[in-house]
Design goal:
By secondary structure, this protein is of the alpha/beta class. The protein contains 13 helices and 17 strands. The structure holds S-adenosyl-L-homocysteine.
């Protein structure tokens, strides 16, 4: 009977935790099946004279056991599920015959007709498992699965339920600004929020996607003055959380990198309000990367230091040992430093950093308005002034900048070759 006349399979979610699963074969097919079986908590035995290094790795870490010999029928004793994955057709036939006889469901990558179960394309979105069976057209099922997951992640398909809504506070780091650069967990937390309290540098495009019943509070519009605004933010967070709402505190980059995130965690803890953190991609590393600059590079920089320049060197509140920083040979990334670059540049040169040290200034990293200025330590402040750089901008200091700009010049040259 042709495949398209087969009745469609009956989907079921196998709960394999603590249950024996036998995988016959240790090659690439087995390797692909193992992570999901392990994640499901199955007690997996791989039977195969040889395995790939990855399969062996699972065995060495104790996630599975590997029995290094050819298959025998008694291997199926006590199994709930069998994966047939050798490259010897006769062995595959034997295993699936034995499984049939014992009424154990069995998947076969080499012969779907002979299999008693098919593996769907699977993906996870928080507590949801999406499984798509494409009637043995794996590309199609994988692409439908991807489509569903993408829409769940973007919020086009809303998966809000009372079960996933957790009252309390979630600190979400939104990444450098491009809405694509938030984490999957961060995006999901946003979708499940009743209230979102957002900073200026949090990716604004993501706020626009939220459902109309979500209360969005712009933290930058709260009463002025650093301390006052932090107090009113804290008060708001606690108020909404105490009303049983799921509150997302939405920040740029990572909440714990100069983001005052932990102050809010402390506040919640003191008030007995549950609070969790979803880390974000910090601008300190991602903004240079997007501008083409690696913050470390083999043979060039073995250290990278991230510094807040919101107070200048010598300021009574400064906690930075600029002399020590100046003695480092690696990369320095400055955040919140646009205002104090003249003093910082002097301090670094006084401490021993070469005036010619290459620097890059990246404004509005990952956004449509992103621009980069290449300069040197001695010209840094002047060039920032001349190019009218405005916050947010990150400054990268060190020889990695030269590695990057060499390549950029090369690419520029090629472009000119092509166009002119
Ligand atoms: N928690 C954030 C940093 C907050 S401090 C993080 O992890 O990225 C604010 C500073 O971050 C800005 O003054 C700027 O130096 C830097 N910054 C944040 N986003 C930026 C971006 N998209 N481009 C350039 N610099 C950025």
């Amino acid at each position: 009977m042709p495949a398209h006349h087969d009745p469609s399979p009956y989907p079921a979610g196998l709960r394999l935790a603590g249950r024996r699963v036998v995988v016959v074969g240790g090659g690439r097919v087995a390797q692909r099946r193992l992570p999901a079986l392990v994640a499901a908590g199955a007690v997996v035995e791989v039977v195969s004279p040889e395995t790939t290094p990855a399969v062996e790795g699972h065995a060495l870490s104790g996630e599975i056991t590997w029995t290094a010999r050819p298959y025998t029928s008694s291997d199926l004793d006590g199994a709930w599920y069998v994966v047939v994955a050798t490259d010897v057709p006769a062995v595959n036939r034997q295993v699936s015959h034995d499984a049939d006889e014992r009424r154990i469901f069995c998947v076969r990558s080499d012969d779907g007709d002979a299999a008693t179960a098919w593996t769907p394309a699977v993906g996870h979105h928080g507590p949801l498992t999406v499984a798509v069976l494409g009637n043995r057209d794996p590309r199609r099922s994988a692409s439908v699965r991807d489509e569903i997951l993408n829409r769940l992640r973007s919020g086009e398909i809303v998966a809000r339920t009372d079960q996933t809504r957790t009252p309390g506070v979630t600190l979400v780091g939104g990444g450098p600004g491009d809405p694509e650069l938030i984490t999957v967990a961060g995006r999901r937390a946003l979708q499940e929020a009743d209230v979102v309290i957002a900073d200026r540098l949090a990716p604004q495009a993501l706020l626009a996607e939220l459902s109309p019943d979500v209360e969005i509070i712009d933290a930058t519009k709260l009463p002025r003055g650093r301390a006052a605004s932090q107090e009113s933010i804290n008060a708001l967070i606690l108020d909404r959380a105490r009303h049983g709402k799921s509150v997302v505190r939405f920040k740029g980059g990572d909440s714990y990198v100069f983001g005052r995130g932990f102050e809010e965690v402390q506040e919640c803890a003191a008030a007995g309000v549950p609070c969790r953190v979803v880390p974000g991609i910090t601008s300190a590393f991602s903004v240079p990367a997007l501008a083409g600059i690696p913050v470390t590079h083999r043979g060039v920089a073995h250290d990278v230091t991230v510094i807040s320049g919101h107070v200048p060197p010598g300021h009574p509140e400064s906690l930075v040992d600029w002399d020590a920083v100046a003695r480092l040979r690696g990369t320095v990334v400055l955040l919140m430093a646009v205002k104090h670059l003249a003093e910082i540049s002097v301090a670094l040169r006084k401490g021993g950093r070469r005036p010619q040290t290459p620097c890059a200034v990246v404004q509005d990293g990952s956004m449509a308005t992103e621009r980069t200025v290449f300069t040197t330590l001695e010209k840094l402040a002047d060039d920032v002034e001349r190019h009218q750089i405005r916050p947010p901008a990150n400054i990268v200091i060190g020889d990695v900048v030269a590695v990057a700009s060499d390549l950029l010049l090369l690419e520029d040259g090629r472009r000119h070759d092509l166009t002119g």
